[in-house]
Amino acid sequence: MRVTSLAVEGWRNLSRASLTSDARFVVLHGENAQGKTNLLEAVFMMASLRSFRESRPRRLIQHGSKSAGIELEVVGLSGKRKMRWSYGPSGRKLFLDDGPVSRLQEWFGPIRAILFCPEHAAIVRGGPDERRRFIDRARFTAAPAYLDLVRSYQRVVRQKAMLLRGPARDVELDVWDQRLVDLGMRLAQQRQQMVDELREPFKQMIKEIAGNETVDLQLRGVGIPGSSRGSLAEIVARSRAEERRQKRVLVGPHRDDLAILLNGRLARNYASQGQARSIVLALKLAELLAARHRNDAPLFLLDDLTSELDARRMRRLVGVLSQMQSQVWITTTDPAHLGPLPPSECLLRRVVGGTVGSEAGTRQRGTDGAEE
Q1: How confident is the model at residue 167 (pLDDT cuts 50, 70, 90)?
Q2: Cα 266 versus chain centre, distance
Q3: Per the domain annotation, does 19 fall within a domain?
Q4: Which of 23, 55, 152, 293 is the most buried if burial means most Cβ atoms within 10 Å?
């Protein structure tokens, strides 16, 4: 899939901005705080209906504006689709081909995206929730219907937690435990399927980016496949007294973790800063490669790339991406640091003060900063 046009209005620091291109590489460059990441964020919003930097939609609206809007055209297996997102006093509105969207799965059919940004170092360094979020996001990109399962499971956990905080009867908890086990096993199975899809591409990508590191992925927790539904139900039942005492839900896939192993040890504890960056990037590229194996090509979005990778890793990354079929959006302070992108497939746009420049579409900067 490729975004062929993007327009925003009242979005962040961008009163009005637009660009049109069928290029495989879209490079947004400029100094910090000019708005290039805001454009990338707009693309991610359309692909996920959430920002990767702000949880409160009102803060996405430009100061002084009453509403924000994003409109894009995307070309994929289903042909050309026109999509519009807006947020204002009456809340969020979604339109697909000029018609209102009634079911979210309709929206996610034409567009999906994989994002790499500096904050994703937390996948390696952070707690289990960061790694669960990564796996859930990867599974959602592969199968948008997974979102419904996650939400259903989360509702069950919230309801059970509410009961545990009060004088709940065992018969009430029995009902919610049964639903937790049913949904939890389905959730864990889909996570395990995603880990299985990512494992070999991850190993392949870490070699491409970092060289001869030995890595592996393992999903760990009481809810993962390998034990039967009955064994999970037994663990949940045995934990009831302790859950009552702590007044919280202690057992289920919401407590699982993704173990990222580097040379046989947990990367969280032993990876250097450079290794951690390579691991996260390899995980994201593994998503892209796994999608390719499914005959899918989600967008690949990279924010503030030149601050994250040295020249050697950058060259290797560009080489990998040049072989992929996905459209790639990159923000950087200086496109010269990216190395040689395919000139005929690269669109450069300079962003200054919330304005997108009209730089020629196929020009490529050389390593000395001069345009070729």
Answers
A1: confident
A2: 23
A3: yes
A4: 23
Return the higher-pLDDT residue of 362 and 84. 84
Structure tokens, 133: 């979020």
Query: How, if at all, do strands 299-302 and 328-332 pair?
Result: parallel
Name 51's Cβ contacts closer than 8 Å, sequence gap at least 6: 41, 44, 45, 57, 60
| Structural domain contains residue 57 | yes
Q: Is the pLDDT of residue 28 over 70?
A: yes
Angle between helices 170-210 and 311-323 (to 10 degrees): 100
Q: What percent of the chain has pLDDT over 70?
A: 94
Q: Could you give the CA distance from residue 223 to residue 255 in angstroms, rounded to a whole number?
A: 9
Q: 370 lies in which domain range?
A: 1-109+299-304+339-372
Q: What Rg value do the Cα atoms of the chain yield, rounded? A: 22
Most confident of 94-108, 279-293, 306-320: 279-293
| Number of domains forming the structure of the chain | 1
| Residue 150: partners with Cβ closer than 8 Å, 6 or more residues away | 136, 140, 187
Cα separation, 372 vs 361, in Å, equals 12
Residue 71 falls within a domain, yes or no? Answer: yes
> Collapsing DSSP states into helix, strand and coil, what is residue 262?
strand
Rounded Cα gap, residues 183 and 255, in angstroms: 14
> Distance between CA 48 and CA 69 in Å, rounded?
15
Which CATH number do you get for residue 93?
3.40.50.300
Burial class of residue 272 in the structure, from the number of CB atoms within 10 Å of its CB (0-12 exposed, 13-18 middle, 19+ buried): exposed
- How far is residue 246 from each of residues 117, 164, 227, measured CA to CA in Å? 36, 8, 26
Q: Render 281-343 in DSSP notation, one character per residue.
A: HHHHHHHHHHHHHTT---EEEE-SGGGT--HHHHHHHHHHHHHS-S-EEEEES-GGGG----G
Give, in degrees to the nearest 5, the angle at Cα 276 between 274 and 280.
120
Range in 107-121, 164-178, 310-324 the model is least confident about: 310-324
* Measured distance CA(339)–CA(315) in Å, rounded: 6
Q: Is the dihedral of CA 75, 77, 288, 56 positive or negative?
A: positive
Q: Are 15 and 9 in contact (CB under 8 A)?
A: yes
pLDDT at 78 exceeding the cut of 90: no
